[in-house]
C-alpha cells in the first residue's frame, strides 16, 4: 500500500475513540426520525451518512493535493513535497499527543475551521430528523466539514501526496479507516464503545501513531539532507 494511503488509513483507524467522541452522537441521531426505530433499518441511514462523509473528505483531499502539487511545481523547489511530508509527520506526532491527551494544542487548529463550520452547521442540522436514508447522504456531505484534528492531520498527507487524485485517495483511505467505528456505532455493544473511548485504548493508539510519525519524519529529514 502507498505510504500516504497507509498513513491516512492508520489515522482513521487509530482515531476510533476520537471519532466516537466527535461524531458518535451524530451517527446515533441519524435514526431519530426513522419509522419504527427498527435495528436493521439503521444500516441504510448509516451507509448513506458515511458515504457522504467520504465524498467530502475526498473533495477536500483533491483540493489540497492539487493546490500544493501546483505550488511545488511552480516554485521549482525539488524537495517541496519531501518538506510537506516532514510537516505531515509533525502533524501526526501532534495528533498522537492529542489523542493520548498528553498535549491538546492541536485544538487550536480545529478552532480555525470554526469560521467555515458556523455557516455549514445550520444547513446540516436542517436535515434532522432524517425522513429517508437518501437524506443522510447530503447530511453526511455537510457533516464531513466538521472541524476535526484527525481530518486536518490527514489533509497534511494529502498535501504531500503530489496530485489532486492522490490527495483524494489519501482522504478516501482516511474515511475508510474511520468506518469500523462510525458504521458500527449504532449497533456495537456498549462495552466495546466504552473500550474505544477509554484512555487506555486512546493512548495505545496514540503511541502507534507517534512511532509512525517519528519514523516518517526521520526518513523525510534524511531525504532532505
TrEMBL record:
Keyword Transmembrane on entry: yes
The name this protein goes by in its record: Putative membrane copper tolerance protein
The species this protein was found in: Photobacterium marinum
Transmembrane parts of this sequence: 6-33, 54-74, 86-106, 127-146, 158-183, 204-221
InterPro entries referenced in this protein's UniProt entry, alphabetically: UreH-like_TM_dom
Pfam family, one: DsbD_2
All residue ranges annotated as the Urease accessory protein UreH-like transmembrane domain in the record: 7-214
Top-level taxon: Bacteria
This protein's record includes keyword Membrane: yes
Alphabetical UniProt keywords: Membrane, Transmembrane, Transmembrane helix
Amino acid at each position: 500500500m502507498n505510504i500516504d494511503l497507509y498513513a491516512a488509513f492508520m489515522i482513521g483507524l487509530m482515531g476510533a475513540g476520537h471519532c466516537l467522541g466527535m461524531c458518535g452522537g451524530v451517527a446515533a441521531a441519524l435514526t431519530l426520525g426513522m419509522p419504527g426505530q427498527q435495528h436493521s433499518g439503521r444500516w441504510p441511514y448509516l451507509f448513506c451518512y458515511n458515504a457522504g462523509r467520504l465524498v467530502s473528505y475526498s473533495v477536500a483531499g483533491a483540493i489540497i493535493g492539487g493546490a500544493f502539487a501546483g505550488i511545488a511545481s511552480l516554485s521549482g523547489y525539488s524537495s517541496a513535497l519531501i518538506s510537506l511530508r516532514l510537516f505531515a509527520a509533525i502533524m501526526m506526532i501532534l495528533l498522537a499527543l492529542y489523542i493520548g491527551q498528553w498535549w491538546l494544542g492541536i485544538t487550536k487548529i480545529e478552532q480555525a475551521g470554526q469560521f467555515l463550520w458556523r455557516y455549514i452547521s445550520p444547513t446540516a442540522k436542517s436535515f434532522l430528523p432524517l425522513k429517508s436514508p437518501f437524506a443522510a447522504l447530503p447530511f453526511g456531505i455537510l457533516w464531513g466539514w466538521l472541524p476535526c484534528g484527525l481530518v486536518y492531520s490527514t489533509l497534511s498527507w494529502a498535501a504531500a501526496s503530489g496530485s489532486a487524485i492522490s490527495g483524494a485517495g489519501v482522504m478516501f483511505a482516511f474515511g475508510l479507516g474511520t468506518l469500523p467505528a462510525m458504521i458500527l456505532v449504532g449497533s456495537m455493544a456498549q462495552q466495546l464503545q466504552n473500550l474505544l473511548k477509554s484512555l487506555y485504548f486512546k493512548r495505545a493508539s496514540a503511541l502507534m501513531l507517534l512511532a509512525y510519525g517519528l519514523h516518517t519524519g526521520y526518513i523525510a529529514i534524511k531525504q532532505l539532507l
